[in-house]
Amino acid sequence: MQHFLQCGRFGYSLGKSSTAATPSTLVMGILNVTPDSFSDGGRFQALEFAISRAEEMAADGADMIDIGGESTRPGSAPVSVEEELRRVMPALYALRGLGKALSVDTLKPEVMREAVIAGADMINDVNAFRAPGAIEAVRDSDCGLCVMHMVATPATMQREAHYVDVVAEVIAFLAERIAALSAAGIARNRLCIDPGFGFGKTVAHNIALLQNIGRIERELGLPVLAGLSRKSTIGAITGRPVEQRLAGSLAGALAAVAQGASLVRVHDVAETVDALKVWHQAGPLNF
Ligand code: 7PJ
N or C, which end of the chain has less CB nearby within 10 Å? Predict the structure, then answer.
């Protein structure tokens, strides 16, 4: 299935394509600007570190940089609007000249609004633009929107991993969110969708969703982003701790692409780009 995705300054043709020169999978590199990724040298040093990491990911072939100032890992505590802005905005301004799409990973409408004003190319909301004011914050721009499935909040979601039919429920949730965004006048070509691996899901749920990315893409008609990098499902399958999940994460990214994902959100950009280059030459879908 082919898609066009508008992301601020950038427009992408995604999915199966007859023109070999067109990259068919977008690689989104993860840039955490949270204190646990900071060295002890304070804010300036943290910013310098984030910028050099983003430059490295760009050189490694990332198409997008996903800037996150609040950890959304299961069980994590929320941060204030002010603190999140202090983390995200300097990085966003500093990276405007990088030549890559800049995504901001946030669930706060205030942060979305500031990010859009500063020229963010995408807003990646693990809360699917459900917060009051979120849709209004992104409506009058041309930034891309990543709409992710999550039940409850990052603090409580693992306690609520109950589904009768996880694939159907994720599709129904995303369909409702797409309808809400469309009703606000947001063009469909600004949207990508994400089953939200690890967000309120067991290993079995995550595997069922991974195997059904093609169905999710077909039923909703939008490009799918898959974020499996280093996640606990990769750990559960391989028995590896988080720092040893590279090989498993690469296989997860390729499996997601084989099932129809058009974007992958990863920590290890250079390795993922290499794996995708080989896959796109020889993979079963013959992109
Ligand atoms: C995801 C995300 C994901 C999207 C995080 C982590 C947890 N955004 N933000 N999809 N995961 N769209 O990276 O382990 O899967 S934070």
Answer: N
Helix spans in the chain (H): 42-59, 81-94, 109-117, 134-139, 166-183, 203-211, 213-220, 232-238, 246-259, 269-282
Q: Specify whether 16 is catalytic.
A: no
Q: How far from chain centre, in Å, is Cα 253?
A: 12
Q: What is the pLDDT of residues 153-172, one digit of tens each?
A: 666 666 667 899 999 999 99
> What lines the ligand 1 site, CB under 6 Å?
72-73, 105, 124, 126, 146, 148, 194, 196-197, 225, 227, 231, 265
DSSP 8-state secondary structure symbol assigned to residue 262: S
* Ligand 1 site-directed mutation target among 105, 125, 213, 267, most atoms within 8 Å of CB: 105
Q: How far is CA 59 from CA 64, 269, 278, in A?
A: 12, 9, 18
Residue in 226, 230, 231, 233 with CA at minimum distance from that of residue 254: 226
How many helices and strands (H and E) does the chain possess? Answer: 10, 10
3-state secondary structure of 5: strand
Rg over alpha carbons for the chain, rounded to the nearest Å, is 17
**One-letter amino acid for residue 27 of the chain:** V
Q: Where are the domains of the chain?
A: 2-280
Residue 123, H or E segment: strand 122-125
Q: How confident is the model at residue 74 (pLDDT cuts 50, 70, 90)?
A: low
Superfamily of domain 2-280 in the CATH hierarchy: Dihydropteroate synthase-like (3.20.20.20)
How high is the pLDDT of residue 15? 81
How many angstroms separate the CA atoms of 172 and 103, rounded? 25
Our mutation pick for probing the ligand 1 site, out of 265, 266, 267, 269, counting the most ligand atoms within 8 A of Cβ, is 265
pTM beyond 0.90: the answer is yes
